[in-house]
């Protein structure tokens, strides 16, 4: 069977160490060789990113330039209409074939709200879910039914992720990285430094482009 391939979807407005560091640790823990970053095309009815699609993609490129674990997939950005994660995973499953182990990486905050995603029950028919810890979010699901769904699919064996194409959830003991894109944007609005929160090449780009200066208060 081909080696496990994982994807991390996100708005990346901007990409930061909270995306990169837990996933690097996850790769060590699970034997992942490749992680594809998949910037979202944000639906018009949702709050729009402050950076343009091109700027968000450029920041991802700059962040991963010296991190060979990561690659970038621009497919969601190239669409005229936003796509749901489940649809992107269906397209990828078609490309990789039925046998390829595929995983979608999420933070604990996303696991807690996964049941609000479009066709969320189909996700595990298409991929595994790899969950990174995130500070400030409970470890238990909201309801007994959701907890039971989680328990049914949980595995503690990283090797199992390589042995079947989809269907498992792995909660990884990744480092807690207390960073969010919201905090970065807020710090910039308030004229504070973000030096410790994201790669220097991305900070330079943000400064050159004058991003996140508008105050929303
Ligand atoms: P925002 O603050 O704008 O909502 P964000 O920082 O949460 O953004 P996203 O691009 O929305 O970043 O996140 C993409 C994915 O990365 C999500 O699955 C999210 O759970 C995960 N993620 C983001 N930040 C962290 C973090 N600090 N630790 C673990 N996972 C994270």
From TrEMBL:
<comment type="similarity">
    <text>Belongs to the NadD family.</text>
</comment>
<keyword id="KW-0548">Nucleotidyltransferase</keyword>
<comment type="function">
    <text>Catalyzes the reversible adenylation of nicotinate mononucleotide (NaMN) to nicotinic acid adenine dinucleotide (NaAD).</text>
</comment>
<dbReference type="GO" id="GO:0004515">
    <property type="term" value="F:nicotinate-nucleotide adenylyltransferase activity"/>
</dbReference>
<dbReference type="GO" id="GO:0009435">
    <property type="term" value="P:NAD+ biosynthetic process"/>
</dbReference>
<protein>
    <recommendedName>
        <fullName>Probable nicotinate-nucleotide adenylyltransferase</fullName>
        <ecNumber>2.7.7.18</ecNumber>
    </recommendedName>
</protein>
<keyword id="KW-0808">Transferase</keyword>
<dbReference type="GO" id="GO:0005524">
    <property type="term" value="F:ATP binding"/>
</dbReference>
<comment type="pathway">
    <text>Cofactor biosynthesis; NAD(+) biosynthesis; deamido-NAD(+) from nicotinate D-ribonucleotide: step 1/1.</text>
</comment>
<keyword id="KW-0662">Pyridine nucleotide biosynthesis</keyword>
<dbReference type="InterPro" id="IPR014729">
    <property type="entry name" value="Rossmann-like_a/b/a_fold"/>
</dbReference>
<dbReference type="InterPro" id="IPR004821">
    <property type="entry name" value="Cyt_trans-like"/>
</dbReference>
<keyword id="KW-0520">NAD</keyword>
<keyword id="KW-0067">ATP-binding</keyword>
<dbReference type="InterPro" id="IPR005248">
    <property type="entry name" value="NadD/NMNAT"/>
</dbReference>
<feature type="domain" description="Cytidyltransferase-like">
    <location>
        <begin position="7"/>
        <end position="187"/>
    </location>
</feature>
<dbReference type="Pfam" id="PF01467">
    <property type="entry name" value="CTP_transf_like"/>
</dbReference>
<keyword id="KW-0547">Nucleotide-binding</keyword>
